[in-house]
Each structure stands twice: as structure tokens, then as C-alpha cells.
Amino acid sequence: MEGVVIMDYGMYVILFEKRPNGELVQIEERAWTMNMVAALEHVNYIVAGGREYETIEGRLNVDTGKLELLLVPMRND
Fold first, then answer.
1. Which end of the chain has fewer beta carbons closer than 10 Å to its terminal beta carbon, N or C?
2. 3-state SS of the chain?
3. Is 54 among the domain residues?
């Protein structure tokens, strides 16, 4: 099946950071295990690239077969 990226062991997840000006920036895209995807039901925060983010919302893009997560950075004052 051409273009399908869902894998037996998980799926691809794309992390997007929402900047204060509303701009969306892709942080990363990588394969997650199904356990990691299932953990999203219980977590509000994600650490990626050494930075902590709050998860705002997610969507499953059925055209690409990828889970897209919208994140905002946490202030570490």
C-alpha cells in the first residue's frame, strides 16, 4: 500500500510548536510505539529535544497516516 506510514509497532507522530505569534513550527517527526501513543491519554506534558511542552490538542491525519500533536513550550523561569 503506497504512502501508508502506520507500522506494526506504532505510528509516526509529528510534533508542532505553537509560537506566541501563532506560527506553527515542526519540532520533529518520528516513529512512536503504540504504548507511547496510548500514554497520551494520561499525560499533559511532553519532553522533546530537552524542552518541556504542554500538549494542547492532537489530530489523526488519515491522508498521511500520521498523528499530529500541537504543543506550547513551558516557561522554565
1. C
2. CCCCCCECCEEEEEEEEECCCCCEEEEEEEEEEHHHHHHCCCCCEEEECCEEEEEEEEEEECCCCEEEEEEEECCCC
3. yes
Tell the burial category of 43 from Cβ atoms under 10 Å away from its Cβ (0-12, 13-18, 19+): exposed
- Is 1 within a domain? no
Q: Which residues contact 54 (CB under 8 A, 6 or more apart)?
A: 44, 45, 71, 72, 74
Residues of the chain with pLDDT under 50: 1, 7
Kindly state the cell numbers that stand for 57. Answer: 490538542
Confidence (pTM): 0.82
